[in-house]
Structures are given as structure tokens and as C-alpha cells.
Amino acid sequence: MRSSTDSQRCEEVVGYRVALKNDEGDEDARQAILKACHQRCAERTLRVLEKNGSIFIKLGQHLSSMNYLLPLEWTRTFIPLQDRCPVSSYDAIEEMIFTDTGLPIAAQFDNFGRDPIGAASLAQVHLATMKDTGLEVAVKVQHPALQEWVPLDLALTQFTFATLKYFFPEYDLQWLSNEMASSLPQELDFALEGSNAMRTKRHFDLIKESPLVVPEVIWGCKRILVMEYVAGHRTDDLAYLDSKEIDRDEVSAALARIFNEMIFGNTPLHCDPHGGNIAIRHNSLRRTHNFDIILYDHGLYRDIPLQLKRDYAKLWLAVINADEESMREYAQRVAGITNEQFPLFASAITGRDFGAVTTSVVSTRSEKEKQVIFGAMGEGMLQQLVQLLGQVPRIILLILKTNDLSESVSSSPFQAAD
User: Fold this and answer.
1) I need a surface site. Which of 1, 17, 118, 173 has the fewest CB within 10 A?
2) Which among 272, 292, 353, 404 is annotated as catalytic?
3) How many whole angstroms separate alpha carbon 64 and alpha carbon 74?
């Protein structure tokens, strides 16, 4: 039975109503009250997401990376959802494998681990050995209960965001639940995921200087995917990076090049690159790097139309050159951005004050600029940004989401090095 969120929604709405309407004391005191409200509500929501599991974990993973949109108290509280996911029982997995393949586990694998080596929102992974070849493999199996709960979970997610919009019309996040409803059927098709993985592997295998490794797919069906076992460490495992003398800046730069190749090159875009889907391993045999970047979970992909790739590239060239006229032109082409919306859009995609966007985004962000951005967020820019994201095409949302998620992953070495 799904955990009821009605009482929680009421408590959070009342809490925010009180915090936002509070006009007693100085500004610091009001901010402290609001931050405490953020933290309380985030912790309550985390407990509900963890208890309900499945797509609620997936939702929380994405929200944890939306630091451009959500308060720090929310994004920081949701970070554990990248690794702390529910586990399905061995008996349930055994029954599902027999149902889907017509063969028991023992007929297909030797040494099939009873406990998963990893669990995610939609699936878990067991270590095993192929019976016919002796190859060590990772067997990704969908949580069996998803078939029963996904339709209801999607409906609840859409209802929750509709409720949020009702009480706070300026925070319309229904575009996020709509995108989940569109994307989830693809993520639940493991045969499609296998196809995506091999297509990406073939593309990057031709780029010899790229450190990207995509595990080889052995076979797959709707709810089961068998791949070669390729292990690594999280990108924020700084002790491992330092012990192997792996340069953190090189890791960040390599991640940026990989996802830029997906956006602008002749290969589909991986749209779910959070910290749990990317690993690092030492490799002293490479000529340009001493590490591999392993990319997992290829369920959510999009093919970007060629003209959109070109227009998006020209948008960023215009940003780099501080060419405001061209920026406005290509922002309109790729996302339908009006002249009135453009300053906000430009600041959102660059993380810079509009003044810096029109002069030089390669300049270092000053303390004054940080204060200007922070002040603008407090004056209503956040509400405008939420509304803006609800209007742009879905493919642009996914590109921006990937930019945001890959940036949150690639920036972790920088942040920890400070």
C-alpha cells in the first residue's frame, strides 16, 4: 500500500504559508524561518519518497540535481536517493526471471548472487556467471512490483504537482511530471536500453581518445538485461582518485566532452547522467588519460534533430562570443524564447548574471555578481524560471536536464578540491 501524502501536503502547505507570510523581525530572521521550513519539508518528503519507492525515488534523484531551481535544503536532502534505493527479494527476482525467460536461474547462470550489488529506483543488479561461457556478468532486473504500481505512481505524481500548482500557482512544475509520464515507458523497456547502450558503445569506440566505457550487452528482454561486469568508483570518491593520481580537472573535462559529443555529435543523448550512473576506474594503458569513465543505465535516450543540434551549437557560440543579437535569434529557434524572456533564459542556461552573459561568460564570477543573482532569485526570478521551463519544448527540457545533471556530476571533483 502506498504511503498517504495527504496529511503531509497539508502540513507543508500550512508551513510554507506561515513562513512566507511572516513579516516579523529582520530579514535574517525571516530567512532563517524559511530555511528551517525548507529543511523540515524536505526531510518529510524524503521519508515519503523512500517509503513509496519506484518512480518516487526517480523523481527525488532528479530533484536533487535541480540546484538552479530548488532551495539548497531540498537538493542536499535528496542526494542520498542516488544510492539509497529499495531492494526486491531474491524470490521475487527468481520468479520474474522464470516468468520472462521460461528458464530457471540455474539453467542460465552459475553463481547468481542472492544479494544485489546495486539497487536503483527501477531495477537492481546481481552479479552472476554465464553458464555457457563462464563470463562474469551484471544482470539488471526490474523491480517486479513496478508492473502493478507504476500507473498509480504516475497518477499520484501528477496529482501532487497539480496540488502544488493549485496552492502556489507561481510554482508550476507539472512539466516535470508530464515528462516522467512520457519517459518512463522507455526506461522500463530493458531491450530498448540494451539497444541504446550498444549504439552509444559503437559510436564512442571510434573515438579513440575518449575514455568512455559502455559495458557490452549480452542479451536483454523487457525486464532483464545481461551485460559484461564493469566496476568502478563514484566520481566523488576523492580518496580513490587521489590514490590513483587521477586528475579531478581531467575527469570533469572528459565528462563535459562526452556529453557535448552526445548533444552535438552523431549519437543519441543519454538523459539521466546522475552520480549513480557514472563511475571511474584507473586505466594506465590509455595514452591521453589514466582513467576510464563508465556509463551505466541507458534507458532514457533521445535523438536530437540535426537542425536543432546546429541551432543549439550556434546559440552557445553566440554565448561564448557575447553576441546578444545571435543569442536572441537562436534562443527563439531552439526554445521559442521571446525577447522579453531572453534575459532570464540566458542567465538560466549559463548560471551567470545577464550583464556577464552580454560581456563575457568566460570571466570569473565575482562576489558582486553572485549577490545580484541571489537577490534576483529572491525578487521573483525563481517563479518566472519555473513558468519558463513549463513552456519550452520537451527535447530542450531534456537537453537542459542533461546539462544540469552532467554539470552536477562533473563539478563534484572541483567542489571537493576547494
Assistant:
1) 1
2) 272
3) 7
